[in-house]
Amino acid sequence: MSVSSCKSARAFNLINGPMTTGPINAITDIAGLAVGHVTLRDGGLRTGVTAVLPHQGNLFRQKVPAAAHVINGFGKSAGLVQVNELGCLETPIVLTNTLGVGTAFNALVRHAVAGNPDIGRETGTVNPLVFECNDGFLNDIQAMSVSERDIDAAIVTASTGAFEQGSVGAGTGMSCFGFKGGIGSASRVIELDGKNYHLGTLVLSNFGRAGDLVLPDGRRVIPPKAKPVAEKGSVIIIIATDIPLDHRQLDRVAKRGGAGLARMGAYWGNGSGDIALAFSTGWTIHHDDNRDVVPVMMLNENRIDRLFRAAAETTVEAVLNSMTFAPETTGFRQSWRPSLADWLADYEG
Question: What does the record give under GO molecular function (predicted)?
């Protein structure tokens, strides 16, 4: 296996849908949005942290509208209840493994309090948002190796522009359709009133039964040494846009991430935690606003089908990128996952 064979899904001519991609075809096509990783790969460890920052200002003071949609709730995420009650996001989004959720929650609280000393005293508390997938097949998950320092580092080092995909950050120990999964991303351009906007998606892929994967060209893929097992993985879908949307519209967009998963052959099994979050940077909710009535920006509902298509297309491409960028991996107790990139290279050869 050669790591050099790992490249984008488009490099293998896996094109999903007719819409135009953003300049770097990633969630960071949304101006100001940043992504950071910390990867832990040592001995039996195959895990890490990925942080998504909607903007690089004070998120507690300048919240962004958001909505979460639970496709199948076999997961241990933190913060979803308040996101859907109040319709906003006020911390970075942290992705990690299942047993790292509590650590990430604490780290996000400390990060928010450091920038806002009035939290819990002169003003309300903060709602950390943490998502997880179980990387216990490739990773020694009982080591509980993710630390608050790792969370801090992922946030502090988050940057705009292109970022690493595949077996990195929270995706280091993930599996997808029997192959190596991980972090993937994609974006689409949406023209409204003569101006180009973007919708981008980042996924943490850890779902799908081996043999169920359907590629955009219709091929069904069976990984080498595949064994029939129950669907008990998870996937986290983060959808971002610079189009101004309200909470209800964001909820509708988040649901379309599930359409992308279904296109690939997933059926959201009993043991799978499949969750989508959508947020908009098109307007902000000011924590200290003293006005009784505040203006809200939102999309004309008659144009929202463009976002629905973009959400489905980018989810598919992001999942494929999470796999084609990931090399073959051997992990804890000699567990092993092949690379989809190798399978595609052999098929073309």
Answer: aminopeptidase activity
Q: Are 131 and 204 in contact (CB under 8 A)?
A: yes
CB 295 within 8 A of CB 282: no
Q: What's the average model confidence in pLDDT over 284-291?
A: 96
Helix (H, G, I), strand (E, B) or coil at 341: helix
How far apart, in whole angstroms, are the C-alpha atoms of residue 155 and residue 94? 9
Which positions are annotated as active-site residues?
A: 234, 272, 274
Mean pLDDT of 72-83: 97
- Supply φ then ψ for residue 296, to 5 degrees: -125, 130
Confidence of residue 349 (pLDDT cuts 50, 70, 90): low
252, 266, 268, 269: which is closest to 311 by C-alpha?
A: 252
Domain at 3-287+296-339: CATH architecture: 4-Layer Sandwich (3.60)
Res. 203 pLDDT band, cuts 50 70 90: very high
Domain ranges of the chain: 3-287+296-339
Angle formed at CA 72 by CA 66 and CA 74, multiple of 5 degrees: 105
- CA distance linking residue 58 with residue 90, whole number of Å: 8
